Amino acid sequence: MKLIFTVALASLVLYIPGPVMAQDKENLARTTVCENLARSGQLDAALNCFMQVLESGPDDRLLNLRVAQLLEATGQVDLIGPYLAKVDSSATEVRSFLEMLSNNYGTLKIFCEGSTSCPRYYKAGVKIRFSPPEELEQAKATRLAAINNMLRSGGQLWFFQENDKKASAAIEYFPVVVGVPMPYSAETGAGTVDFNFHFVQRSELTIKSGDLDSIQCAVPDTLVELQVEIDDPEYDALIRSDRGESELLLEKGRYYLSRGDLSSLHFHRKGRPTISRKYLLITSLVLTSAVILMQR
């Protein structure tokens, strides 16, 4: 029986590689073409080439890295997330690329002063045009142009109403100035505002509610509707995050959780501090409904 198993296994191994090796050779040839396009500066063509090769091996770590690198090089750095999720983060080339991203891009936080009638979140068209302090590298200049085009063409930002008079929004992958730390300028409806976003200091930008083209009260797709049923009347539950549980609850059973919140569900006996048992709530970009049953 052991001999039969060994022979069958060997036959299987000999049978499979034929088409697989042929496919590998084809992909290698296509990848070489893509690499040559990138070396010759035809970045858009190289990106399209790698994307086509990736269709036959969507989990290939090196191909995903190449696509991520070319997306950054063509100013589309905001699209690299799904590809970076599939790379080998321990590889030297990947670590260097991630370090480059953290040094050259950041999240620009925008504060809007002025009250609105929205209870928590709203999306708004924003009158802003950014100008860099000096000529940026091509990739970052393209990314900044994409941000300006998005805002000029009716693009909207989500604002979180922190209190009655201040809300905040964010623009991800905003280019960092790594040369002489001169300030950026932002043209708003009220005039020009200078702010620092360079390798030493990454300041926030403050605008007025009058700089907004439109305001629409709405709920982003990070809304979590949570229903908790506990059969022991002596116990209760609450949601906690780095903003505090009182900041989350709007109405019974409904919470607004932003991406990046450290949110967790705690069970506790009424009138006593929360016990150690807790469940981390993972916020995502989709509407999530959670039903948690706790039995005695």
Query: What is the percent of helical residues?
Result: 25-40%
What's the total count of β strands?
A: 16
Q: Structural class, please?
A: alpha+beta
The best one-word shape is globular
Radius of gyration: 25 Å
- How many helices in DSSP terms? 8
How many domains, in number, for the residues?
3
Distance between the termini: 53 Å
Order of strands in the sheet with most strands: 8-1-5-4-2-9
Note the main sheet: 6 strands, mixed
Strand content: 25-35%
Could you state the order of secondary-structure elements as H and E? HHHHHHEEEHEEEEEEEEHEEEEE
Poorly predicted segments? 1-22, 245-253, 275-296
The average pLDDT value, as a whole number, equals: 76
Q: What's the SSE blueprint?
A:
Layout: H1 2-15, H2 17-39, H3 43-54, H4 61-73, H5 81-84, H6 92-104, E1 105-113, E2 121-126, E3 129-131, H7 138-152, E4 156-161, E5 166-175, E6 184-188, E7 191-195, E8 205-208, E9 212-217, E10 223-230, E11 235-240, H8 245-248, E12 249-251, E13 254-256, E14 263-269, E15 278-281, E16 288-294
Parallel strand pairs: 1-8, 10-16
Antiparallel strand pairs: 1-5, 2-4, 2-9, 3-6, 4-5, 6-7, 10-13, 11-14, 12-13, 14-15
Helix pairs in contact: 2-3, 3-4
